[in-house]
Amino acid sequence: xxxxxxxxxxxxxxxxxxxxxxxxxxxxxxxxxxxxxxxxxxxxxxxxxxxxxxxxxxxxxxxxxxxxxxxxxxxxxxxxxxxxxxxxxxxxxxxxxxxxxxxxxxxxxxxxxxxxxxxxxxxxxxxxxxxxxxxxxxxxxxxxxxxxxxxxxxxxxxxxxxxxxxxxxxxxxxxxxxxxxxxxxxxxxxxxxxxxxxxxxxxxxxxxxxxxxxxxxxxxxxxxxxxxxxxxxxxxxxxxxxxxxxxxxxxxxxxxxxxxxxxxxxxxxxxxxxxxxxxxxxxxxxxxxxxxxxxxxxxxxxxxxxxxxxxxxxxxxxxxxxxxxxxxxxxxxxxxxxxxxxxxxxxxxxxxxxxxxxxxxxxxxxxxxxxxxxxxxxxxxxxxxxxxxxxxxxxxxxxxxxxxxxxxxxxxxxxxxxx
Length: 419
Known about the structure:
Blueprint lengths: L2 H11 L51 H5 L2 H12 L2 H38 L3 H5 L18 E3 L20 E5 L6 H10 L7 E5 L10 H10 L3 E2 L3 H15 L4 H7 L4 H9 L2 H8 L4 E7 L3 E6 L14 H6 L2 E2 L6 E2 L6 E2 H11 L8 E5 L8 E2 L3 E3 L9 E8 L4 E7 L9
Parallel strand pairs: 1-5, 2-3, 3-4, 6-10, 10-12
Antiparallel strand pairs: 2-13, 5-6, 7-8, 7-9, 11-12, 13-14
Helix pairs in contact: 4-13, 8-10
């Protein structure tokens, strides 16, 4: 038996059942203070498995800091242990998600908006006017035969500037209706839904009262019965032009349809219109200047849109009835959607910059753009919601004090099966 084993055995004999070491003195004599004395040697020396120190399991306990720094394998093992830790992986996923979200927000939301805003400001810079040779509409006004360019709404129809007091009803309302396209049944449903009262409400159509739908003549008669105001839409203009050609031509309907087969349906409708109905549509101006409305500035109605910065009496009538987009360099409008930026974006930016102008701001209420549907921006209100194609017929109602709301009814799809 070695000395270490003997000492360990003696140590175990001196350990009582309570696990405490007792000094090897007489157990009967009182224990002096400090009976639990310090060991003569460190406790580690009494461990029996003396071969633990060279074991691989404990080797890292005796390794020095310098040894770890000098060993690439140990550093690699440390990195691997960190990377494979579950918490580390969770952090990586979270931070990668945040980075990805920031990139997507910048790439698809913030950067396009900043780029678009910069392009709009550049387009409206007066210095660009000379470079473009003058903006569209500032030089000459094209004239269209038998077309009324501009009308002023009777001021008696305007809502009061102040909202009614509590308990009182509105005295005046303007009810703007989007493209009806001959959908008389839906128009009657819409007027019932808004509780239309001819004594206190005035009805204004944004154009395209006729064509495509089942009862164009009935829509015109309803508008005439209510003494409604209107503007000329591109479909209204098309039928009126064809009617004028038919009346002034010596060709029969069959001959006309042979030369212009695509116009057959429009010619049929033009023939069905009475003189009174045609006269009503012919009296609809290209632009209706409604007048000042609380919280909206000067309100104007146009079927397609307006070129910003051009006086109402100098707007190109064909463009007003047909525009969808506008070229930012020249401000030339186009009836094609992808020939430039949407005209409403340029118009809204122009009006936002004109807040301090002495002429105030202008709000345009328009139709024509069924693909965009209901589109209520700050200075442009698009209310063609595609009724004739199974969408909705929309009424935009302005009450005393400039209170605004929209009312809609669902429509039957009268274009089903047609290209």
